[in-house]
Amino acid sequence: MIEIDQISKVYDGKAAVDAVSMTVETGTITVIVGTSGSGKTTLLRMINRLEEPTSGEVRINGVVTTSMPGHILRRRIGYAIQGHGLFPHHTVGRNIGAVPQLLGWSKEKTRARVDELLDLFSMDPAQFRDRYPAELSGGQQQRVGVARALASRPDLLLMDEPFGALDPIIRARAQTDLRRIQRTLGSTIMLVTHDMEEAIHLGDRVAVMDGGQLVQHGTPAEIIQNPATAFVADMVGGVDRPLRLLSLIAVADIVEDGPATGTPIAAEASLRDALSACLWSGRDALPVTRGDAIIGRVTLPAIRAQAQATA
Amino acid sequence: MSGGGLRRIALTALLIALVVRPSWFAWAFAPFAPTGGPVIYERASLLSLSLNHLGLVVLASTAATAVAVTLAILVTRPAGAAFLPLSRTITNIGQTFPPVAVLALAVPALGFGSGPTLVALFLYGLLPIFENAITGLTTLPPATMEAARGIGLNGWQRLNRVELPLALPVILTGIRLSVVIALGTATIGSTVAAKTLGEVIIAGLLTNNTAYVLQGGLIVGLFAVLIYDAMIRLETYLTQRVTGGAAGR
Ligand SMILES: Nc1ncnc2c1ncn2[C@@H]1O[C@H](COP(=O)(O)OP(=O)(O)OP(=O)(O)O)[C@@H](O)[C@H]1O
Ligand SMILES: [Mg+2]
């Protein structure tokens, strides 16, 4: 558990981060969203003490972060920097293996881990391991930057716009991969983005920052349904809100008995996908499958009921 | 073999012959000697003058590199940052001070001989190396430095694994400039009785013997050209080893 307690950073008399408090549960993803300059990076950098807070403190599992030297703290926390920051004079393999090497892993173990991570990010180890960062595309550099942060399987990962330079397809895959990795390892992730879509897709919790302040911290559904301020409402995108809400709910949650015909939809799909399928094929109900078996149907009125503001 | 390689070998052979067997070239220098006067310098062996000359340069440049790089590292640390402007000013003043003046000032303190020459070469060699090392250490990519801290490298590890390797090409350029300046400056050292190749040139000037002047000048010039070339190749090699060639792109 990470407790951020009244943390502030003042630059030249102006607060970049203004008395932010929040608690991040172990094994969850918290996505910090906000416009440019709202203090997201500064907040993240105060957690691993790349920046010392002007006031306030951070506790990780009850231990105050200032109780150990900064570099020792940072070796335990994965950090994917905004704009990758790879070492230009080291190969991809050495870049990814940097933290394991610092922690004294054996060469074989480090190498196996490097290959595993490259595979995970759809980069052929044999082809990429010995290349230099300058020999990669921007998206590949960014994935290597994320792989470096993951390398030592840290319990806590800080990621600053890790998927910014990726095209939508690779981006969606990287997000799904990250979610999967996080679920299997039970890691705690704090991720910064200015893309609300990404926040809703990835976050167990979403934290919205505005002008250095934390204006709302809650589940994606809470943020969409009850935006705390006009700014948050703006961020979750006025007209898109019902669709965003639907994208959070699985078909399985509102499946009912009854007849339906045509191409079925999977129980794990979101209501947004189901709505889309209804509209596209002109149907009012879709059969729902789990595995190969049909388990019921999902109807347009039921979907519509879910999309309404819970006022 | 490439044309550059052949030319390099030819020039090296010419230089060695000039230094070890100067009498082979008597026919070439004879037209420039005064009638009846000596053609080839024989008061001291050209080989020992050359070795002495190079020895002074190597000694002074090594010391200058050690001191200049250490200073540059110190003033680019957070604790030494306050001294950065001051050290820059001193560097700039030093550069405007002519080497002859340094020699003249060092003689009363160190006497005649190699001492004052060594001091002049050392002081003069500091400047380009310090300047380049500062440039190299202060223009590192900020994202890379942030990542170096972010993954948990301590100050010492950042210096050794990231900052120095990335600054190396620029530092090496400074060392090369410094060495070439020292090769030239060392000739002036013979005015205060240091045993360098300048002795041949000065003897020629004093006795109106252009053959001597040409001989000394040619040897110093060939040393400078060949050493400059060798250092460029060393730089390319080291840079590639450290950066995998990525830095040059
Ligand atoms: N070292 C610094 N010195 C002075 N001001 C700073 C410093 N670092 C950040 N700031 C200021 O603090 C504010 C917050 O910056 P921060 O980098 O945290 O924003 P951000 O939310 O990450 O923005 P972006 O989405 O553009 O990355 C900005 O107004 C910035 O100018
Ligand atoms: Mg930022």
Automatic annotation (TrEMBL), chain A:
Gene Ontology process terms (BP): quaternary ammonium group transport
Single Gene Ontology MF annotation = ATP hydrolysis activity
> What PROSITE patterns does the database record attribute to this sequence?
ABC_TRANSPORTER_1 (PS00211), ABC_TRANSPORTER_2 (PS50893)
Q: Which UniProt keywords apply?
A: ATP-binding, Nucleotide-binding, Transport
Descriptive protein name: Osmoprotectant transport system ATP-binding protein
SMART domains to which the protein is assigned, alphabetical: AAA (SM00382)
Can you give the residue ranges of the ABC transporter domain?
Answer: 2-236
Q: Which SUPFAM superfamilies match?
A: P-loop containing nucleoside triphosphate hydrolases (SSF52540)
Family under the similarity heading: Belongs to the ABC transporter superfamily.
Which organism does this sequence originate in?
Loktanella salsilacus
UniProtKB/TrEMBL annotation, chain B:
- Give compartment(s): Cell membrane
Matching entries from Gene3D superfamilies are given as: MetI-like
Choose any GO biological process term that the UniProt entry carries and state it.
transmembrane transport
Q: How does it sit in the membrane?
A: Multi-pass membrane protein
Transport as a keyword?
yes
Keywords, alphabetical: Membrane, Transmembrane, Transmembrane helix, Transport
Q: Which InterPro entries match?
A: ABC_transp_perm/SBD (IPR051204), MetI-like (IPR000515), MetI-like_sf (IPR035906)
What Pfam families does its record include?
BPD_transp_1 (PF00528)
Which residue numbers delimit the ABC transmembrane type-1 domain? 50-231
Please give the GO cellular component terms listed in this UniProt entry: plasma membrane
Principal cellular location given in the protein's record: membrane
Membrane spanning residue stretches: 52-75, 96-115, 121-143, 164-192, 212-231
Q: Which family does it belong to?
A: Belongs to the binding-protein-dependent transport system permease family.
| Record protein name field | Osmoprotectant transport system permease protein
